Amino acid sequence: MAIGVLIIGDEILSGRREDKHLPKAIALLKARGMRLAWARYCGDERDRLIATLRDCFSSGDVFFSFGGIGATPDDHTRQSAAAALGVPLALHPEAEAEIRGRFGAETTANRLEMGTYPTGARIIPNSYNRIPGFAIQNGYFVPGFPVMAWPMLEWVLDGELSALHHAEPYVESSMWVFDAQESQISALMLSVQEQFGVTVFSLPNAHAPGGRRQIELGAKGEPAAVVAAMDALRTSLAAMGFPTESLAST
């Protein structure tokens, strides 16, 4: 099953905040034998956010949405998710209990608004301050604050999505190829890709004038097929006169 992330907030698009969720999500997925298929960014403009969320829900992919689930006027994620799904918002009883447990006699209507989700949602517990996130259909919605969002992401990964851990055997392996240009090895890449059923990739390395040309060349896919593909690449590159140097597999 493909997995994506949606990172929401004008502050990310304007540069006032630097996104830290994308690299963290990649790392948390990788630690569980999972990988990210796509990432999207969206500001706080509601119509655009509704359209973006509609795309995410209709994709059928699991996706994690970061940001915009608070109750201030610039937070539109809860409302936009409901509009994208065509369902009303409602105060979630478990979220209400958590919020009242957090604030007690200081619970206000505005604070309860943070527990108002699209009808049919499930809560995602927040160990930091007890203000939950929510999940509905294939979407998981957490705050924009890393101190809250990342433990909530792990809770989902190790709970509802634990069956996806290491579900698909996958490895990436690469090597440096020296003195070659991509145009000289593109036919070889295509041939190996078709022969072994893997994805072959190349990443040229920028070098200083007069420096040695080098390309990171690799394959990704089913582990045994990747090993065979890399062996075939090394053999062919040696015959073409291009030296190689192996890199660590991931």
Task: Explain the layout of strands and helices.
Blueprint (H helix, E strand, L loop, with lengths): L2 E6 L1 H5 L6 H10 L7 E5 L3 H14 L2 E5 L10 H9 L3 E3 L1 H11 L5 H5 L2 E3 L3 E3 L8 E4 L2 E4 L3 H12 L13 E8 L3 H15 L2 E7 L8 E8 L1 H18 L3 E3 L4
Tell me what you see in this structure.
Strand 7 and strand 8 form a beta hairpin. The chain has helices at residues 10-14, 21-30, 46-59, 77-85, 93-103, 109-113, 146-157, 182-196, 223-240; strands spanning 3-8, 38-42, 62-66, 89-91, 116-118, 122-124, 133-136, 139-142, 171-178, 199-205, 214-221, 244-246. It is 40% helix and 24% strand. The chain has 9 helices and 12 strands. With 250 residues, it is α/β, with parallel strands linked by helices. The two termini are 20 Å apart. The model has no long low-confidence stretch (mean pLDDT 95). The strands form 3 sheets. Strands 2-1-3-8-7-6 form a 6-stranded mixed β-sheet, with helices on both faces. Strands 10-11-9-12 form a 4-stranded antiparallel β-sheet, covered by helices on one side.
